[in-house]
Design goal:
The protein is α/β, with parallel strands linked by helices. It has a 7-stranded mixed beta sheet. It has a two-stranded antiparallel sheet with strand order 3-4. Bound molecules: S-adenosylmethionine. S-adenosylmethionine binds next to loops.
């Protein structure tokens, strides 16, 4: 665990990864799938280091410096859809609670001054609706691809300790400081 300071709790086929076997990352997902998907000209499957549920993570508090959270963001995919097989699907009845719990867990396992990267596409569910489920404000997000009909954004959060936890000389975020959001 000592050199595993990055967590990808729902890694799927690791499509966004440059190094799928990065030694400092723990890859998790709720399932394992044999190689059977085609992507980028190669066969790929879902091979996490650990089968886990992002709603109840098997790690102590403050275990990671970076958490990269890309949960499913579609809820209307057909049962046999390839996209569903590859990237999962939100449960129409429970997705808000599932995401809320996922965010809470990401935050809990994040170390002080650690970074949470949250990736979301608004093709079905607006960014605002997803962001309402996290109790923290992003520091920034990408402002490109505004012309596309559906957009994917990366939201960057940092776990800055609140005043009660901060030591002299350390930076704090004022509790009532709210950043404007889209
Ligand atoms: C959008 S994909 C992630 C894509 C990934 N970032 C990539 O680069 O390929 C979402 C993944 O979340 C997984 N997932 C869904 N619910 C989960 C849960 N409760 N805990 C862990 N993983 C979950 C799905 O199995 C799916 O593989």
């Amino acid at each position: 665990m000592k050199n595993k300071f990055i967590l990808d709790p729902c890694c799927s086929v690791k499509a966004m990864r440059k190094n799928m076997n990065h030694p400092n990352v723990i890859f998790g997902d709720i399932r394992e799938e044999e190689d059977g998907f085609m992507g980028y000209g190669r066969k790929e499957g879902i091979h996490p280091d650990i089968i886990m549920d992002f709603r109840k993570m098997p790690f102590p508090d403050k275990s990671f410096k970076l958490v990269v959270f890309e949960p499913p963001h579609l809820s209307t995919l057909g049962k046999t859809s390839l996209f569903r097989k590859k990237f999962g699907c939100l449960e129409p009845e429970t997705w808000q609670d599932d995401l809320k719990r996922g965010f809470k867990e990401c935050w809990r396992v994040l170390d002080d001054y650690g970074v949470l990267e949250f990736k979301w596409s608004n093709s079905e569910i607006p960014f605002k609706k997803a962001l309402e489920l996290i109790e923290h404000e992003p520091l920034f997000y990408n402002t490109t691809n505004f012309k596309a009909t559906s957009k994917t954004k990366w939201f960057c959060f940092m776990k800055i300790p609140t005043k009660s936890e901060v030591k002299p000389g350390q930076a704090t975020l004022k509790l009532n400081e709210r950043l404007p959001i889209i």
